[in-house]
Amino acid sequence: MELPWLSAPAADVPATARTLLGYTLAAEGVRIRITEVEAYAGTGEDPASHAHRGPTPRSAVMFGPAGHAYTYFIFGVHWCLNIVCGREGEAAAVLVRAGAVVEGVELARARRGGVRDRDLARGPANLVVALGIGPSANGTSLIDGSGPIVLAPPPSPVDPASIEAGPRVGVAAAHDVPWRFWIGGDPTVSAYRRHVPRRRT
DNA sequence: GCGACGATTTCG
DNA sequence: GAAATCGTCGCT
């Protein structure tokens, strides 16, 4: 699978994020159709990006070739999945926030335990659980079949007019850029929560 | 080396 | 509204 537009310049990552809506991610017996994403740009361009202050051991994958997975650990509890975008040396990425399970529903139910089907892959950490992936996926290719996750084009095209945009969820910085994109009206899209500062101890 | 804090989820 | 819970990153 060749997806050259994934390597579009980092400045175009919002457009890349929109394009990824409707694509499917398959891993460990479950396939989900992406219904919600967020765009993150690179060094110096996006205060909310992990790569904003330059390369670090964690964010190194973001600076690599497009089409690879960037997984990170958050709050000592959860894993989230990004699709690396942009040209090599740039650090753009698209956070996969929600999806609809289209294959392997039984497996996804077993992994998520007793939630409604629409919630199986609702929210970035829940989506990762439904797909049964984890830290070992970091840095693997999503497009050449060499890794545990495979990205594939939409089974049915997404109507561009149905795509909606808004501020990214839970980010303290850049609250004003509408870099979250979702398929309008889709029940699997996660609820918007504004960033809440933690109480200092 | 130390400490504040996070692209979250879930419960009360 | 707040806790859980720990790796990462910047610097008191």
UniProtKB/TrEMBL annotation:
<keyword id="KW-0227">DNA damage</keyword>
<dbReference type="GO" id="GO:0003677">
    <property type="term" value="F:DNA binding"/>
</dbReference>
<dbReference type="GO" id="GO:0006284">
    <property type="term" value="P:base-excision repair"/>
</dbReference>
<keyword id="KW-0326">Glycosidase</keyword>
<dbReference type="GO" id="GO:0003905">
    <property type="term" value="F:alkylbase DNA N-glycosylase activity"/>
</dbReference>
<dbReference type="Pfam" id="PF02245">
    <property type="entry name" value="Pur_DNA_glyco"/>
</dbReference>
<dbReference type="InterPro" id="IPR011034">
    <property type="entry name" value="Formyl_transferase-like_C_sf"/>
</dbReference>
<keyword id="KW-0378">Hydrolase</keyword>
<dbReference type="InterPro" id="IPR003180">
    <property type="entry name" value="MPG"/>
</dbReference>
<dbReference type="InterPro" id="IPR036995">
    <property type="entry name" value="MPG_sf"/>
</dbReference>
<comment type="similarity">
    <text>Belongs to the DNA glycosylase MPG family.</text>
</comment>
<keyword id="KW-0234">DNA repair</keyword>
<protein>
    <recommendedName>
        <fullName>Putative 3-methyladenine DNA glycosylase</fullName>
        <ecNumber>3.2.2.-</ecNumber>
    </recommendedName>
</protein>
